[in-house]
Amino acid sequence: MAGSLRIEPLSRDEIDSIYEKCVHVLSTYGVKVDHDDALTRLAAAGALVDADTGHVRFSRELIEEALKAAPREVVAKGGDERHDLPLPHPDGSFYTSTCIQSMLYHDPESGSFVDVTKESFAEWCRLVEVLPNIDACAIQTPMDVPAETADVHALNIQLQNTSKPLNILAYCLETVPYFYELLLARAGSEEALRERPLVFIDPTSLSPLVYKAMDLETILYSIRYGVPVAPSSLVLAGGTGPSTLAGAALLVAVEVLAMVVMTQLLEPGHPTIACAYNYTLDLATGNALMGCPETLLAQAAAAQFMKEGLGLPVLTSSLQTDSYVSDGQTMVSKSLQPTMCCMAGADIIYGAGRLGGSTLASPVQLVIDDRLVEIERRCIAGVTVDDDTLAVEEILGAGAGGHYIKRRHTVRHCREAVRPDLFVAEPLDMWQAGGGKDLYERAVERYRELRDGLEPLDLPDDTRHEMDAIVRRADEALVP
Amino acid sequence: MAIEEIKNTVLDGDDERAAGLVQAELDAGTDPVEILDDGLIAAMDEAGRLMTRGEMFIPEILIAADAMKEGLEVLKPHLPVDATGLRGTVVIGSVQGDLHDIGKNLVALMLEGAGFDVVDLGVDVAPEDFVTTASERDADIVGMSALLVTTMPRMDVGVAQIREAGLKARVLLGGAPLTQAYADKAGADGYASDAPRAVALVQELVGQKV
Question: Which domains occur in chain B, in start order?
Answer without folding.
Answer: 2-78 (1.10.1240.10), 89-206 (3.40.50.280)
